[in-house]
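ok so i was messing around last nite and threw this chain in just to see what happens. nothing serious, just curious
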Amino acid sequence: MERINTRIMVIALVLATISRAYGATASPVDNAAEPIIETGDVHRFYKIYDAAGGRPTAEALQYDYIDPGSDGLHELARLRKVTGQSIAEAIAKRPQIYSGARDCVAVLPRVRERLVVVLGKLGALYPEARFPPITIAVGRSKPVGVGGRDTGVQIGLEALCATGWINPDIEDRFVGVIAHEYAHVQQAVAFSESENVTVLAASLEEGAAEFVAELTTGSVSYSYISGLTAGREREIETAFAADADKTDLSDWLYNSTPEKPADLGYWVGYRIVKSYYQHADDKHQALREIFEMTNPKEFLAKSGWRPGVSLD
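result:
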């Protein structure tokens, strides 16, 4: 396994240089911060995993992996019920994803290098951006990633590595999904965590993250969706408009499986956000409004979107 530095600082000078290249002035507070990409948890996990012949006990995983882990791993454990027991059960149920995740460990150095550029571009496009730590760790086979305004970004190495259908290129997959989750860090409201969230609100939350991933990396993170929607844009979006106020998200969001990728709400939300941005004269102000969105219906009304609308 290629050894990776456990921490990398995205040096302020790099951010400032990239920011100047895009003609933006960095915030003296937020962009002066040096985001950390933490990968030490991965190495500690595989040390325990290898010593146990691929079958570590729940106790070893809890006391030797999670308890001494990074703050990001502790946050992942809190948010997504990751425990030594839940990881041990996941390994027993799906051992192949933990052995296979080694393939993704090898691409992390290059992912790290590319994220320097991606985060620099985010800072250039949106000088108010926040840059909390990114933690890549091993969890209980899900989630792929978590991002929040107050919690930073946590990526489940084994989960993201196993979801090749998101994007078959491992390196692009990691960069894209991390960019998507980092966009969630900037959002004022996490609609999906609210009770009775509507299809529209959750789709705009996810769609905004997809749009920002495209702005900063050149591509949406969930690239498979274009194959599901080609030639069906008006049909899909007409159905979405009819369901926009529903609080049952199951037809539109968080419903993908390896056998049947879905999550079309991500795509519709992305198109609404992109339409909003394209119609804006002041792109910086538009991006601020995307991140600070609190009223999904009002945002939709101002977006210029309609089912089947053509976007450049």
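not much to say yet. The chain has two domains: 7-186, 192-303.
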